[in-house]
Specification:
heterodimer; A: about 190 residues; mainly alpha; two-stranded antiparallel ribbon; about 5% strand; B: about 180 residues; 5 helices; flat
């Protein structure tokens, strides 16, 4: 803004100079100085004390941007700061576990294989023991294996019964042979 | 804080305290910077760290490295025994992780040796170089080229191929004698 006031002062000075030279040379070259004729007094400018002219800067609105950033900061810090404070407290006052050899005859619990206290807490109270997950996965595999075996055996039984015809499947009811009327075939000349 | 490395494995050359034979009467400016560093940075940091460790040592707890039981390998599983396959696969993956870490450790040893010896590394690190070559060759023979979908079954097939090639090579060597 100070630069702009300097610019305006420079423009005023240049205008006064051009006006003076224009008035002198206008008599000789009236067709040249037509466009460059400036009023001898430029517009009066109000300066605030020592700060230069107060400018009305025209720029696109930053209302939405600042509102977004403010809200972002607010909602991130609303839960972020308590979480960070909690994690700092845990790291300073509880601290990480130390590595030790498994003592003789002692079977560690499944959460004692983690170092950070928060990981230990999550493993202990939120997650299932890995042995349970392992057994669950093996149970699913066992059930699926049994199902696959049953389906395979059923297909095999179907194939054999169809082929040999001696099983309970693939029985098609045929009419009794005593009901068949053979009278039209009993003489050769029918 | 990071732990100290194993001094038996990663050997450092013996320290040599320099005998100062100063020719000038100007005091060593390094000592000034050392005292400044000591008072401004080292002492407060050490104080805070020791205070934290005092808070943490009130109730200590430990963590362990899990030891897994050995289960039958994939080659000892009956055909169609999917549970045996599952356990053998899990054991194979754990063994592959362990082998990868072993290769990393041998590589670290070579790098440490190179750092230690400086310009003499070609001559003095021959043992570590040989060890790394052997270990990487073994790893490549067993786990290399299986790809991202490599599992215990593909590794077993690769082993079978290797054994077949060895047998053919031996048979050809015996036949050519």
């Amino acid at each position: 803004m100070a630069a702009m006031s300097l610019l305006l002062r420079a423009a005023a000075a240049w205008g006064a100079q051009r006006a003076a030279s224009g008035a002198a040379a206008g008599a000789r070259l009236s067709w040249l100085t037509g466009a460059a004729r400036l009023p001898s007094t430029v517009a009066p400018v109000r300066h605030s004390s020592g700060h230069g002219k107060k400018m009305f800067i025209i720029k696109p609105t930053s209302f939405y941007d600042t509102r977004f950033l403010n809200m972002l900061r607010f909602y991130v810090f609303l839960t972020g700061i308590p979480v960070l404070l909690f994690i700092t407290y845990v790291n300073i006052f509880i601290g990480e576990a130390e590595l030790a050899e498994i003592p003789e005859g002692y079977v560690p619990e499944y959460w004692e294989y983690y170092k950070h206290p928060i990981s230990r807490w999550i493993a202990r109270y939120l997650l299932d023991p890995p042995e349970k997950d392992y057994e669950k996965e093996m149970a699913i595999l066992h059930v699926e294996a049994k199902k696959a075996e049953m389906r395979h055996m059923e297909l095999e039984a179907r194939r054999l019964m169809r082929q040999r015809g001696d099983g309970p499947w693939y029985h098609y009811e045929t009419p009794d042979k005593n009901l068949v009327d053979n009278s039209m075939k009993s003489t050769p000349d029918n | 804080m990071p732990e100290d490395k194993d001094w038996d494995v990663y050997k450092v050359p013996p320290t040599r305290t320099p005998v100062s034979d100063r020719l000038t009467s100007v005091p060593n400016p390094v000592t000034f910077f050392q005292t400044v560093f000591n008072y401004v940075i080292d002492a407060p940091v050490t104080f805070v760290r020791e205070w934290i460790e005092r808070q943490q040592s009130k109730n200590k707890f430990y963590y362990y490295h899990q030891k897994f039981r050995r289960v039958p390998y994939l080659s000892e599983c009956m055909e169609g025994d999917y549970l045996c396959f599952f356990e053998a696969e899990a054991q194979w993956r754990r063994d592959r992780m362990v082998d990868t870490e072993i290769v990393e450790i041998i590589r670290e040893r070579l790098r440490a040796c190179e750092q230690r010896e400086g310009p003499n590394y070609l001559q003095n690190c021959a043992k570590e170089v040989e060890q790394l070559a052997q270990v990487t060759k073994a790893y490549q023979d067993r786990y290399g080229d299986l790809g991202v979908h490599g599992n215990a079954r593909t590794c077993l097939m690769k082993q079978k191929q290797r054994m077949m090639e060895e047998r053919n090579a031996k048979a050809k060597a015996e036949a050519s004698e």
